[in-house]
Amino acid sequence: MLDLTKNIPIITHRLSNQLDLTIVSIRKVPIISINLTYFVGSYNEYKGIRGFAHLFEHLMFEGTKNLPKGEFDKICTLAGGSNNAYTTHNKTTYLMVLPSNQLELALWLDSDRMYNSEITEHALTNQKNVVIEEISQNVENRTYGTFRKYLAELAYKADTPYSWDVYGDIDDINNSTLELARKFFDTYYKPSNASLVICGDCEPHSTIELVEKYFGEKSESALPHTNGNNVNVQKGKHFVSPDEVPLDAVFIAFHLPDYMNSDNDTADFISQILAGGRSSLLHDSLVRGKQVASSAGVFTDRRQFSSLLVFYAIASDTSVTADILANELKIEIELLSKRKDLDYLVEKTKNRLMTAIANEIQYTQGLADTIGNFRTFYGDAKRFYDVIEMMTTCSQQSIFEFCDKYLDFDLSIRIDYQSKK
Asked: Most CB within 10 Å of its CB: which of 45, 123, 345, 392?
C-alpha cells in the first residue's frame, strides 16, 4: 500500500499569475476530477462580514457575464458530470467530476466563474436569504445544532477569528452590502489565492497548456492580507445551553495545536479507536453496555492555526443527565491509556485506517480533495506521499503522551444541553 501511494504521480506547476496547479495523472478510467480551492474561510472574516466565506460558496453559483444563473449546473450535468462545494474555517473548495473528454469544458466553467462572476444586488439578496434560512434550519432550529456556535465562542477569545462558526452571523449576513461583497470577491477570488488540482485521466503537458489557456489571464499577483496566526484560546469553560432539547447531552472539547502538528494525527487515531464505528469503545461501553447514551463519539476539528478534539454523548432517556454523561466520557478517556489490549486496538485501527485511505484514493474525487488539503495546509501537494506514515505511526506510547499532554478536564470546554424534565 505504501509503494502504491508513493507511485501516484504528482506534478506541480505555477502560472505567471501565481495560480498553483497540481496534476495527478491516473489513466485507469475516463474520469477527471477538478478541485479548485480558494484560500479563504471564516478565519479571514471580521465583525461585520462573519459568514461571507460561506455566503460566497453560494454566490459563485449565481451566474457570470457569460452564463445566467443555473447554467453552470445544467452544462455540467449535460456533460455527464456533477459538482459541489464546501467551506471550512480556512478554505473554500469547488469540486467537479466529469468524463475526461470534458476536461476543457470543466476548465472553462471554473475559469469563467473566477474571472466573470457577477456580484449583483439581486444575487446578493437571493443568497443572503438562502444562507439565513440554512443557518435557521441547520443551527438555530436543529436539536443540538448550536453546539459549534457555542464551542467557537467559548474556546476562543472574541478577538480571534475562530470565535464564530463557519455559518457566520445572521445579523452580519443580513446587513451585508454589495460594496462589501464585491470587495471580498476582489480580495480572495483571484488566481494568486487559489490552488487547482486536476486528478484522473489526463496527459500532464496538454493539461498544463489548457490551464494556461483558460486561467492564464494577467492578474494582480499580490496575496491578500490575512489575519495571520492570530489565535487567542480560552480554557476551562463550562456553559449550559438555553436551548430546549428532548434529552440531555454533553460536548467536551480539548485544545490541540495547528493543523500541521503531528499530534493531530494522534488525535485522529484516538478518535478512530474510541468512536470508529459500532464496534468502537464508546459505542460498546456507553451505548450497548451501560446504556446511558443513545449515541456517543469523538472527532478532530482540524484548523490551520488551532484545532480541537471534541467528545460528545447524547442521553438514552430522561433519567440520564449531562453530568452523568460527562463523567462516563471522563472514565472512558482515563481508561484508554490503561487498557491491556491497547496494542491490539492500535494495530486494528492502523489496518482500518489503511483500508479507509485506500478506499478514499481509489476514486479521483477523493484523491483530488486529499491532495488539495495537503497543498492548502502543508503548502506542498507531495506531502501526500507521507499520508500512510502520518496516519499509522501512532503507538501505545504516543497515546500515553497525548492523553497526558492534552486531555486535562480542568482546561476543557464543556457544553451541557439540559432537557426540561
From this structure: 45
Per-residue pLDDT band for 398 (boundaries 50, 70, 90) equals very high
CA distance 13 to 17: 12
All structural domains of the chain with their residue ranges: 10-215, 237-417
CA 134-140-144 angle, to 5 degrees, is: 115
Residues 6+ apart with CB under 8 A from 68: none
Which pLDDT score, from 0 to 100, does residue 197 have? 98
**pLDDT confidence tier of residue 5, bands split at 50, 70 and 90:** low
Of the candidate CATH numbers 1.25.40.10, 3.65.10.10, 3.50.50.60, 3.30.830.10, the domain formed by 10-215 belongs to 3.30.830.10
Interval 243-265 mean pLDDT:
96
Shared fold status for 10-215 and 237-417: yes
Over pLDDT 70: what percentage of the chain? Answer: 96
Write out the three cell numbers for 36.
479548485
DSSP notation for 148-213: HHHHHHHHB-TTSGGGS-TT--HHHHHT--HHHHHHHHHHHSSGGGEEEEEEES--HHHHHHHHHH
Tens of pLDDT along 129-178? Answer: 999 999 999 999 999 999 999 999 999 999 888 999 999 999 999 999 99
Which residues, listed in sequence order, are joined to residue 22 by a DSSP beta bridge?
Answer: 12, 197
377, 383, 385, 388: CA torsion to nearest 10: -50
